Amino acid sequence: METVTEPVWMRNLRGQAQERFRTMAWPTTAEEEWRRTDVSRLGLDSFVAGPQPKLACPRDADAGTSAGFVRFESSRCAELALSPALRDSGVKLLPLDHAMEEMETPMHGLWQKAFEEADNRFLVSHFASFNHGVLLWIPAGLEIKEPFFIDFAESGKGFQTAPHVAVFLGQGARASVVTRMGGAQDGEGLLCNAAVDLRLADAAGLTYCEVQEMGPRDIYVRHARAVVGRDASLHHVDAEFGGRFAKTRIDCSLDGAGADARLDGVYYCGAGQHMDLRTVQNHRSPHATSRAYYKGAVASGGRSIFQGLIEVAEGAAGTDAYLTNRNLILGETGRSDSIPTLRIGNNDVKCSHGSTTGKLSSEELFYLESRGLSTLDAREMLVIGYFEDLLGSAPEGYRDQTLATIRGRFRRAA
Q1: To 10 degrees, what angle do helices 362-370 and 375-391 make?
Q2: What does the radius of gyration of the chain's CA atoms come to, in whole angstroms?
Q3: Are 238 and 196 a contacting pair, CB within 8 Å?
Q4: Is residue 1 part of a domain?
Q5: Is the dihedral of CA 326, 332, 334, 338 positive or negative?
Q6: Same domain assignment for residues 348 and 368
Q7: Which of 149, 176, 261, 364 is most enclosed, with most CB atoms within 10 A?
């Protein structure tokens, strides 16, 4: 694959983003979404934009049992593979700098609209400094059983990196994607300012799984946007583990009648970590269904915030939406805030929300210990069981790896 030059429209969009960035301030605690998360002490202005790598991405790797995969190292596309049969069927798996030229018309319109709707300085900065990412484009009617894998290994002391994932499914297409965002565990700290764009045409189906394992000194911000068409279905699963600071948001718009969305998430917030996660279920069309279910565990010295919103437009009659958040406090100084919210513009709806925060059951611990388990093993069993039900519907490999990560974090903190 040849190295390409960034198209004129993208350079113009960068210029617009840079100009808008200069006129904006970082979010403050005066804003409701950021009220419990103060970014003023993060030294955000000290991070410089990472380099703009213009290296060709190899395409001769073997996809193996996957549909395809792409791997980035330090913002550079290091490896890419796509099943030859899928390539012949019209599937596109491209580094974004190549996709912007090869698929200029749809990319230009979608990116311009996304930039215009950016509502905070982090997201505007992403468009100004974007330097690597991937596009997965699946034609109409194509059902792909094997998963796609996307892996980012972010690095660079004092850098702001801006990875971007775009997944577009044509009418009736079906696919699954697993994305890993990782940082150096012994690194000296970077700002990873990521974005995800998921677009599902009518009757399409997508399972999109994310896992975030940034380094312990890193700052992680991720904005995800999903648009779900008529009779389409999205299952988004998010697992948040790394970074000293993490702020994520997914805005899911149910734009067609009969659309269905499930937003599942797990997080393990350790000592010294601050995690602020937000979900938005935006019902714009009638007879759509959505479920958001997030579960977290917070160790001593950790702080988590979950904000969930169900928003129903006036014309979205027959909406069926539910939102719940559960938190498990594992140490005396762990803290968790949960803020589920409803904003309803139609009377013909079924919407509800719930939230719980608690500790491990002393009765269950006693029962397990009386059967010969050590206190540590009993606690671990209850923690893993707490997450297992939510992850039960996730792809098997993703579920097993996520539970293994939770088990490892629990053991290290014990």
Answers
A1: 120
A2: 21
A3: no
A4: no
A5: positive
A6: no
A7: 261
Cα 257 to Cα 286: distance, rounded to the nearest angstrom: 5
Confidence of residue 63 (pLDDT cuts 50, 70, 90): confident
- Number of structural domains found in the chain: 2
Helices (H) and strands (E) in the chain, counts: 8, 21
Residues forming a β-bridge with 240: 212, 267
Residue bearing tokens 């996307």: 150
d(CA 253, CA 271): 34
Quick one: 208 and 350 in the same domain? yes
CA 289 to chain CA centroid, Å, is 20
Tell me, yes or no, whether 407 lies in a domain: yes
Q: How confident is the model over 344-400, as pLDDT tens digits? A: 999 999 999 999 999 999 999 999 999 999 999 999 999 999 999 999 989 999 999
Dihedral sign (CA 361, 367, 368, 372): positive
2 belongs to a structural domain: no
Containing structural domain, residue 395 = 360-414
The verdict on 282 and 387 lying in the same domain is no
Question: 3 lies in a domain?
Answer: no
